[in-house]
Amino acid sequence: MDMRIQIDNAVESMREEIFEFLQHLIQIPSENPLGEYGPISEFLHKALLELGFEVQVVNVPEERVKQEGLPTPRINVIATMRGSGQGRSLVFNAHLDTVPAGNPAEWTYPPFSGERANGKIYGRGATDSKGRLAAYIMSAVALKRSGIPFRGNITIAATCDEETGGVLGAGYVNEQGMIEGDMVVVEGYSNQIVRAMAGVMQLRIQSIGVPAHAAFKWKGVNAVEKMAAVIQGLSGLQRELERETSAVPGMRYTSLNMGLIHGGSKVNVVPGYCELEVDFRIIPEHSLDDIYTRVEAVIQGLMSRDPQMNIRIHRITEFQTEPTITGEDSPLIAELQTAISEVTGAELPVVGMLGQSDTRWFVKHGIPGINFGPGTNDNNIHGYDEFMDMEDLIQTTKILTVLQKNVVV
Asked: Which residues lie below 8 Å from residue 82, measured CB to CB, with a gap of 6+?
């Protein structure tokens, strides 16, 4: 029998099993913060053993958790479906945590119900990223059940804390050398292949003034007014950056978002302090240091023209990562496109995004990666009534199984 037909038959025979597996994942809350990983890691440990994986539950040492200032244990699950040897190995990564569900009254179906309706499965994490995790796990199971022999290993890295940076999740397991593979597929969308993600830098900018009574304003230095000039200067920098477009489709240009500001103590007091936090999403053509230097130049120019201006810049160090990029000529992209074509008869656009994901931890440790998985950004991700389209889940599981056939057989 043709291997493609064997795979199609295997996934079709698993439809109900795939849907129920995702429902079980949704029904185990794993909101972050705080990050309660015990119940979901216990479920995965048992379920993955029953599905034929070798399973390692990785408890991050308590001292590392405390160093990061986290209140609960951090747990990762690594599962491997072993081949016969001497083949290329493939890693799939999705995260265990979800953003908080918010007000349950705003959901049509309870956020941890995993309710099925209208061809969809609803609940927090239905797409991000429990739907992806279900597809990754079940695609490996489908390859095994298809009877097609394979040589390379298939590894599932179900990691914690992606929603808050992934330091003790994908970051930790890569740092400790626990992940081996020739290439990695990380959570993504089924309507595009993402090969590049923006760098992220966040700055805290402080304006230091001199407080005074508002009736004697000339005796003080208004920190809020000085910050207004900084905002104008950064707006000018954004206009410059908009002219420096990326060669990667979908990435556009380096963006800066002035997201938080506060200052002053009382309306009749000249404010002696004002603080602004700025988020930068940096295209591969730029580096963090390049953008930081340009911000410094804007500030220095303002202060040179206004001797009363006292501006300080600080990097918020926990939110820094360089742009992540996998080359257009990556074998992983070619083999994924082949799998997509085998299943759907078409290919998908290869793009970049101004977001970030755990791909960076794998690329940093020498494993090239892309982002692809079931769901799209229309699935109410991070919003109320998050859902997974059931046919999308099945089709993407077929694509991922064919990809494994192309890589590890």
From this structure: 54, 153
Buried b (16+ CB within 10 A) or exposed e, 222-243: bbbbbbebbeebbeebbeebee
For residue 321, give the H/E element and its range.
strand 311-321
Q: Do 352 and 249 form a contact (C-beta atoms < 8 A)?
A: yes
Q: What is the DSSP letter of 72?
A: S
Structure tokens at 92: 């799939």
For residue range 271-304, list pLDDT tens digits in order.
Answer: 999 999 999 999 999 999 999 999 999 999 999 9
Q: Give yes or no for a contact between 20 and 40, defined as CB atoms under 8 angstroms apart.
A: no
Identify the burial level of 156 via C-beta atoms within 10 angstroms of its C-beta, where 0-12 means exposed, 13-18 middle and 19 or more buried. buried
> Tokens for 13?
């025979």
Residue 216: burial class (beta carbons within 10 Å; 0-12, 13-18, 19+): exposed
Contacts of 6 by beta carbon, 8 Å cutoff, 6+ apart? 146, 147, 148
* Structure tokens that stand for 321 in this block: 């990562």
Is the CB of residue 358 less than 8 Å from the CB of residue 168? no
Specify whether the backbone of 121 is left (phi greater than 0), alpha (psi in -120 to 50) or beta: beta
Could you give the CA distance from residue 125 to residue 279 in angstroms, rounded to a whole number? 25
Sort 20 into a burial class: Cβ within 10 Å, 0-12 / 13-18 / 19+.
middle
Q: Indicate the residue type of 206.
A: Q
pLDDT at 1 over 70: no
